[in-house]
Amino acid sequence: MKTINALNVSCYRHLNEEIDSTILTGTKQIVLNNVCGQRYIGRGLENNIKIQIYGTPGNDLAAYMDGAQLEVFGNGQDSVGNTMNTGRIIIHGNCGDTVGYAMRGGEIYVRDNVGYRCGIHMKEYKEQTPIIVIGGKAGDFLGEYMAGGAIIVLGLNLKDKNDKIVGQFCGTGIHGGVIYLNNSHLYDKSVFGKEVLQSNINKTDILFLKKYTNSYKKFFNINFNIKLELFGKYIAVGKNPYSNMYCNY
Amino acid sequence: MSLDFNVPSFEVIRNEKKCIQCKVCIHQCSNMVHVYDEEDAVVYSNNNKCVNCHRCVTLCPTEALLIREYPLEFRKNTNWTRQAIKEIYKQAQSGGVLLSSMGTPKTFPIYWDKLLLNASQVTNPSIDPLREPMETKIFIGRKPNKLDFDNEGKLVTVMPPQVELNVPIMFSAMSYGSISKNAHEALARAATELGTCYNTGEGGLNKAFYKYGKNTIVQVASGRFGVHKEYLNAGVAIEIKIGQGAKPGIGGHLPGKKVGEDVSATRMIPIGSDAISPAPHHDIYSIEDLRQLIFSLKETTRYSKPIFVKIAAVHNAAAIASGIARAGADAIVIDGLRGGTGAAPTRIRDNVGIPIELALASIDQRLNEEGIRNSVSLIVAGSIRNSSDIVKAIALGADAVYIGSAALIALGCHMCHSCSTGKCNWGIATQEPFLVKRLNPEIMYKRLVNLITAWNHEIQEMLGGMGINAVDSLRGNRLMLRGIGLNAKELQILGVKHAGE
């Protein structure tokens, strides 16, 4: 375990180089203190590395990450887990826009809320299935162009019971993957993109949700009771949404 | 469905005296144009299905086949042309967006053909490239504002990463999916032999091609297909694709039927799923955001590779290019109006963007005026057809060019403009195994090598004629150009004088 104080390392390049050289010495666990907006922390980082981040890491946290585990004691900014391949990110707070943009594998847990376009163009490939678990609520365009993986929105700690946990245009352009939303009875079709299909939740879904809500509880050390059968399951109408749009000429 | 009003585009003419009914045409045509009638023992042709790719004509052993434009005349009308009418029939029938392939067939001005090169006479001697050194090697990447040397004359300035090219010609981005694996292999092997680069396009990099990494540019587009750490580190440069000349402002869809096992593995998406590239990168809404992506790639590759940013040539290209240079890109790729594509909506392809010559001239001018021209290399694309186009592009300010259509033509493309159907009879724009097999990369890569070698000789001859002995010395040297038949505004934008001036 090595601790790096990021207070006076305002340039992300230097901070990331320091993390690299620390890992080169064989250190597998790093604590970053006083992080304040430095970008790209954990970019491309591989297996067996664990980083605890205190403060607010900058944009593109864990970009192209490839197996490492990051835990943020604070908020994340935009594009957390951008094009991430595998690994795990745990955010004890909120996140900005485009969380998990084009991520192909791994897990992102956000304790509270996320901004716009979370999970945009998430994919999956063979055994790689990316998962995003959001404890609070999500902004507009959740799961836009989604092509794989799963997004789970728990809707905990809402101020108003009728507060919606997802914004407008949810799942617009979705052609793969699945979105689970708590208290689905609150949503009519107007919230979703036209490519979204509501599907019945089954036993496999319940088991899946149980697994990831339990992980959420464990990571954030929170206990709550939630009726998993009240979740709505939203999938793509088809995996070829634009196949009839064109005529060859 | 109502009656299809469309008449065939082409007529297949079979010389019955020459036809020996060997059925080669039947076997070769993936569009099923030729059919053998058992009862009458004749081969006949469905004109309706013909795309005029010349496969049957080329392979017919007795030269019995000829294809020509379907001779049926519409009543003469310069406004309602045959094409305008056919397009309406097509859309009224299908309700679909018209989809086209390859570059626009419209008659936009081709400025390369309205520019003339200079040559030395008397006052400064021309150079014979056969007997004297003639440098066509170039380096793509950011060049420092100044160079510092120590007391012994050794360079102490740390040079930003550069890509070394033996010729100022690269093969432009064509994804695996839009073109076949064999076509990719031919491009990769030719690039390796020539000492230049090919470009993966946005479809990821097949495992089999990692060995060509030293001659590979990997692309990152809005779909982020097959993009991961190993991929980013696989090539010598990374290209962020913002736009494409044939379809500025819109994304792309590789239909699920073209996503077989191998394409799926390369793009890292499920088999049969549409590969959708959104129109924008959703993490780029500004120059600052572009900078963020550029530096995320630099960070992930430890600042070891130049980052290219590719845009379509559009109205404000010069201002955009300035922003890209300031965002930290090492090279800007500009793709012009006449650029090719595997598939683009026809209306976009034929109406959006500006010719590459004008965009290049204005970008080079703008970057020079701002004193940042050295901070980026300029690579141009969008219908480079021959070596003189390249020499003119360099004189207008380009560092290098990308060729796409020209490379495919070297591989056997006959410009039938039907790539999007996936039935390419030449094994180029298809994923059908029996068609892909027709393109033998072992033989075909040599045709690419031949083409570029020949062009390079021609470039050397033209340089020598101008009394210049290095591509680097021609760059932006617009005094070597004169316009012919251009108006004052065009000459002003191109920054050249009229012939005779």
Main beta sheet strand tally, sense and closure of chain B: 8 strands, parallel
CATH architectural arrangement of the largest domain in chain B: Alpha-Beta Barrel
Give the averaged pLDDT of chain B, no decimals: 96
By oligomeric state, this entry counts as: heterodimer
How many structural units, i.e. domains of chain B?
2
Number of helices of chain B: 16
Q: What share of the residues of chain B does DSSP label as strand, in percent? A: 15-25%
Structural class of chain B: alpha/beta
Note down, in words, how this protein is organized.
The complex is a heterodimer of chains A (249) and B (501). With 249 residues, chain A is an alpha/beta fold. Chain A has two helices and twelve strands, in the order βαβββββββββαββ. In chain A, strands 1-2-3-4-5-6-7-8-9-11-10 form an eleven-stranded mixed beta sheet, with helices on both faces. The longest helix of chain A has 18 residues, at 203-220. In chain B, the strands form seven sheets. Chain B has an eight-stranded parallel beta sheet with strand order 9-19-18-16-15-12-11-10. A three-stranded mixed beta sheet of chain B has the order 6-20-21. In chain B, strands 1-4 form a two-stranded antiparallel ribbon. Chain B folds into two domains: 10-96, Alpha-Beta Plaits (2-Layer Sandwich), CATH 3.30.70.20; 129-498, TIM Barrel, CATH 3.20.20. Chain B has 501 residues and is α/β, with parallel strands linked by helices. The mean pLDDT of chain B is 96. Chain B has 16 helices and 21 strands. Chain B has helices at 24-28, 55-59, 82-94, 181-194, 229-232, 261-267, 287-300, 317-326, 346-351, 356-369, 387-395, 405-410, 433-436, 441-465, 471-474, 488-494, and strands at 10-14, 34-37, 42-45, 65-69, 97-100, 115-117, 138-140, 163-165, 169-171, 198-199, 216-220, 237-241, 252-254, 275-277, 307-312, 331-335, 344-345, 377-381, 400-403, 481-483, 497-498.
Summarize the topology.
The complex is a heterodimer of chains A (249) and B (501).
Chain A: E1 2-5, H1 12-24, E2 29-36, E3 50-56, E4 66-73, E5 86-91, E6 107-110, E7 131-134, E8 147-153, E9 176-181, E10 196-199, H2 203-220, E11 232-236, E12 246-248
Parallel strand pairs in A: 1-2, 2-3, 3-4, 4-5, 5-6, 6-7, 7-8, 8-9
Antiparallel strand pairs in A: 9-11, 10-11
Chain B: E1 10-14, H1 24-28, E2 34-37, E3 42-45, H2 55-59, E4 65-69, H3 82-94, E5 97-100, E6 115-117, E7 138-140, E8 163-165, E9 169-171, H4 181-194, E10 198-199, E11 216-220, H5 229-232, E12 237-241, E13 252-254, H6 261-267, E14 275-277, H7 287-300, E15 307-312, H8 317-326, E16 331-335, E17 344-345, H9 346-351, H10 356-369, E18 377-381, H11 387-395, E19 400-403, H12 405-410, H13 433-436, H14 441-465, H15 471-474, E20 481-483, H16 488-494, E21 497-498
Parallel strand pairs in B: 9-19, 10-11, 11-12, 12-15, 15-16, 16-18, 18-19, 20-21
Antiparallel strand pairs in B: 1-4, 2-3, 5-17, 6-20, 7-8, 13-14
